[in-house]
Amino acid sequence: MISSIIGQLFGIVPFGDIVFGFSEFSIIGFVVALIFTIVVYLTKPEKQLEAQKFRVEDKLEVVSLEELKIRRMMAIVCGIATAGAMLTYDLFDYALFLTLVGIANIGIVSAVKKDWVLNASYQYGLIAMIATLPLFGSAGMILAKTGTLSLFELPKIPTSLLFEKIIFAAGMAGETGIAPFYASKAEMFRAPGSPYILMIHLSSLLLIVRTVEILLTI
Prior knowledge:
By secondary structure, the chain is mainly alpha-helical. The chain is built from seven helices and four strands; from the N terminus they run H-E-E-H-E-E-H-H-H-H-H. The chain has helices spanning 2-6, 24-42, 65-87, 91-110, 115-146, 162-176, 196-217; strands spanning 9-15, 18-23, 48-51, 58-61. A hairpin with a 6-residue loop joins strand 3 and strand 4. Keywords: Membrane, Transmembrane, Transmembrane helix.
């Protein structure tokens, strides 16, 4: 089952409790996250035109240097955490990377001095914090039931983990802000500063795909 999803496994690199696995699936996700992180580092943010109410002219929104530094740093952190999540084969470490991505996503827009953006990031932050409970709680239940969190060992244990998988998926949904939690961060995407905003989309997409792969594997 695991080989049919991840493709060929080329090898593993253990760093204590952290185990990175290099398969066809994980390498593709890692490379995509790494390339976009480099693009974020090298690219200047966009300039945005905002239509003005009861006025003919548009307002040019420019990302300040101070704001740029903060958002670029958080976007890079988000990219690195996403790349790490693609390679790790320990469920607890994956949950840590997932949480770090959620925090970084908030940081990408928290420097924007606009009320609607800050309100959206605050609401998303609340959901992301609440989502850590089912995320790590499900990992704890899996550990208690199976005695391991290794994604290499869990498929070999003949134990039903349906309930734990549902709880873990709910935690992932909260951290990435997908439906039904998307409304909490929708206004965040009105903030100027692509490609930093695009990093939020990319990280969420890659983590959703990786979570599906993990849940199907175990």
